[in-house]
Amino acid sequence: MQPASRTRSKVVTLLQWTPPNCRYDPERVPPFTIWLNLLFSAALFTVANLYYNQPVLDKIAEDFNVSFEKASTVASLMQAGYAIGLFFICPIGDWLRPRPLILVMSSQALSMICGITTVTPQLAIPIIGGQVPPNRRASAVQIGVSGILLGSLLGRLLSGVSANYGHWRTIYWVALGLQYLLLALLYSLMPDYPSRAPEGKTYFHMLYSTVRMTFTEPLLLQVCIQSYCVSAVFSAFWTTLTFHLASPPYEYNSLQIGLFGLIGIIAIVLGPFYGRIFMDKFVPWFSAFVGETFALVGVIISTFTGNLTVAGPIIEAIAIDMGTQTSQTANRVAAFGIDSTAMNRVNSAFVVCGFLGQMSGAAIGNKLYADGGWTWVGGATIGLMGLALVVLFLRGPWEKGWVGWHGGWAIRAKVDES
Description:
globular; 418 residues
């Protein structure tokens, strides 16, 4: 056996071994405590890998002597790689035990600095959704989504700070150390939950069923379209914001642009409390409506004031971060109710659509910004958020079919006894 093969074999064996405190015993199922919820939320920080480039796109353009529009393809390619990983890797979370899969993905992200293997967050979210009772699912998933937002926020912040006081490449060495730390925590503390899917299924069946469910489950298709639209708005705003703040009349440096990301701390802090106090008590449809409407109002305000005062982009940042978090959490919780044995596949379809939206939003946003500036980008994002609301209203909160409002208008959550 070649040395490289022996090394790989040892790594695989090490990742497959489970510490005694993490071994699963069906007679004594480990409780899903708040600390375990926070551990998975920390793992979601891996998503920061996708956002380190955003505050330094102007530095990348300068370093490689290319235009802003060319440099922005870095963000688009990262989102494309992530979407590929989501479709081809995440569905097998229903087929394999999640622990070794998450550990492999976390370790692979150390050597492959690309979006394809940065799928640990989307393997952890279905575990959270599956281990808590339905009446607590929204708040538990909200804690996890806050971890994703924290990753994107700190990714932008750390990237901006490192570029301002050093070289823009420094942040990727920092990311390497953080990835090692997260891998060690997961290896030591993550329970070895069993697979949820029926036995006898193959990898290709998992991929096929992911696509099939997207087009045969009305609720899943509805939330996937909303995820695409909302994510496109989010990405178009944050990608073009870098160029907008670096240009007249603002001309901010990388540190100032990175600090702008701290606005998102509002959504991160309030999200779990909002989930417990509000989202657990109402149907996901209503929470999605509140989130998307809030985001739309912020986009409209910023579109018409963003060239005059920095207050416009600040308002939009708050509205988009809070609105997107609320909408995406609500729609994900709704989708998890489709099939308890297919949560990873449902989540994969949902997030693939979301990151296709982010990829499209980054590409379209930068093209529109280059051609018409901030107002053109705002017009497109208003249209996309409006489309998300139209799709939401095509099906009522209790509708089982493709279109309609059968089951009533009630927005209070109730236990499904079926």
